[in-house]
């Protein structure tokens, strides 16, 4: 097949959607498909264009068998709702030269469009209409729901307009795919027929991310003792997770010198977190940059427990990508989730970690204490077992390829 993948994020971004899109594209290319990607210059999660791409405009590069067509875009130094809208539309505008050429070039059999942002679907919709290609609208995050529930956009007229456009694009795709049962339910509630849905969850490569003993972890490299009790948060430092709760939790353990909170990552909220830790006079919170992917197992192995935090309003809109790595590494996670959400159901029913109420400081501190001072061996075994059975990269991508092939008939 000749496949076009259209999304704002792509490798070599280390976290979030770009990581999964890169792995999917390279895997499909490895199966013999001709794979093109239309994307931006990498900027996430730092919200700064990566050094190797600064000053680059429209260009094509070949990465591991994939033809990657990159365009420039506006990247705000500080992210707000208004600036994010400009950021996303600048990308959409920059892709127009590619699309104009694509309408008159060799046809793509499949266009795979990744949201957010949801309005990227505009050009795939037009392409499908004119070229009769298969268009799969893949939802990694229900962006408009999140913006509304997190209070990022409050204008009711504007929200109504965005919900209407989102529903239009969801209804026009050949198929709609998404990553969690919770998001499937929410998409179905937007008047999308169930027979047009595909389940395409995020995955983890268990051959790359796997359990390691603490002696083989990055503790020594990061200056941490083998005797320390480490609470780790690793990944994007954004707004949905409510990460200031880590600082408040750390203050509850300031007199327990054995407990150290490690925050490893980048994102728009990092400077704020560092300032909060400084203002609170905390000496038990340590910040480190994102680590290379090949070091992920060793990084995750530093932790006695991991934190997977989200605000209550976003609890069933996203399935945290960081959780897949934690499970594959055989880690014990403290997860904030409400009963009835995908997160709660999976972690609680499979006994893979400690589930606590979101935005509840007392519950979080009690969950951390339980994770640090009780035997979590069973949680860790269950986590790795679940990853092997339900999150295996090869199995998930093979099923996705079969789903695409079925649409080609």
List the helices and strands and how they pair.
Elements: E1 2-6, H1 17-30, E2 34-40, E3 59-63, E4 66-71, H2 81-94, H3 96-102, E5 110-115, H4 122-131, E6 134-139, H5 143-149, H6 156-172, E7 175-178, H7 181-188, E8 197-199, H8 219-222, E9 229-236, H9 244-252, E10 259-266, H10 270-279, E11 285-288, H11 296-300, E12 305-308, H12 321-328, E13 333-336, H13 342-349, E14 353-356, H14 361-373, H15 377-390, H16 393-408
Parallel strand pairs: 1-2, 1-5, 2-4, 5-6, 6-7, 7-8, 9-10, 9-12, 10-11, 12-13, 13-14
Antiparallel strand pairs: 3-4
Helix pairs in contact: 9-14, 12-15
Considering the chains and any ligands shown, give keywords for the structure:
single chain, six-stranded parallel beta sheet, eight-stranded mixed beta sheet, Rossmann fold, globular, 409 residues
What percent of residues are in strands?
15-25%
CATH class of the largest domain: Alpha Beta
Nearest-angstrom radius of gyration?
A: 21 Å
CATH homologous superfamily descriptor of the largest domain = Glycogen Phosphorylase B
The overall pLDDT, averaged over residues, is: 93
Number of domains: 2
Tally of separate helices? 16
Total number of beta strands: 14
What is the CATH architecture assignment of the largest domain?
3-Layer(aba) Sandwich
Order of helices and strands: EHEEEHHEHEHHEHEHEHEHEHEHEHEHHH
Domain Glycosyltransferase subfamily 4-like N-terminal: 15-203
Organism: Sphingobacterium oryzagri
Protein name: WcaI family glycosyltransferase
Domain Glycosyl transferase family: 217-372
């Amino acid at each position: 097949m000749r496949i076009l993948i259209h999304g704002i994020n792509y490798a070599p971004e280390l976290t979030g959607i770009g990581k999964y899109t890169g792995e999917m594209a390279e895997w499909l290319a490895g199966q013999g498909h001709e794979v093109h990607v239309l994307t931006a210059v990498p900027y996430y999660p730092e919200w700064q264009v990566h050094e190797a791409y600064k000053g680059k405009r429209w260009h094509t590069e070949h990465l591991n068998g994939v033809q990657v067509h990159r365009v420039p875009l506006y990247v705000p130094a500080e992210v707000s709702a208004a600036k994010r809208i400009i950021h996303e539309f600048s990308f959409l505008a920059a892709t127009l030269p590619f699309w104009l050429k694509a309408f008159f070039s060799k046809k793509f059999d499949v266009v795979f469009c990744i949201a957010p942002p949801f309005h990227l679907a505009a050009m795939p919709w037009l392409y499908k209409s004119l070229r009769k290609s298969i268009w799969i609208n893949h939802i990694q995050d229900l962006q408009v729901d999140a913006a509304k529930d997190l209070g990022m956009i409050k204008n009711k007229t504007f929200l109504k307009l965005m919900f209407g456009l989102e529903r239009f694009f969801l209804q026009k795709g050949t198929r709609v795919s998404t990553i969690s049962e919770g998001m499937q339910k929410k998409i179905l509630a937007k008047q999308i027929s169930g027979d047009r849905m595909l389940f395409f969850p995020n995955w983890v490569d268990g051959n790359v991310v796997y359990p390691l003993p603490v002696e083989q972890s990055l503790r020594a490299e990061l200056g941490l003792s083998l005797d320390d009790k480490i609470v780790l948060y690793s990944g994007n430092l954004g707004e949905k997770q409510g990460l200031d709760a880590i600082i408040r939790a750390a203050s509850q353990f300031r007199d327990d010198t054995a407990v150290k909170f490690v925050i490893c990552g980048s994102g728009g909220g990092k400077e704020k977190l560092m300032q909060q830790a400084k203002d609170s006079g905390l000496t038990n919170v340590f910040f480190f940059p994102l680590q290379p992917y090949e070091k992920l197992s060793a990084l995750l192995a530093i932790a006695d427990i991991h934190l997977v935090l989200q605000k209550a309003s976003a609890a069933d809109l996203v399935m945290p990508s960081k959780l897949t790595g934690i499970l594959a590494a055989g880690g014990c996670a403290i997860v904030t989730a409400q009963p009835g959400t995908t997160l709660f159901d999976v972690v609680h029913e499979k006994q893979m970690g400690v589930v606590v109420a979101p935005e509840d400081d007392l519950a979080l501190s009690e969950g951390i204490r339980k994770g640090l001072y009780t035997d979590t061996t069973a949680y860790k075994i269950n986590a790795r077992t679940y990853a092997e059975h339900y999150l295996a990269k090869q199995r998930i991508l093979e099923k996705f390829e079969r789903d695409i092939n079925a649409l080609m008939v």
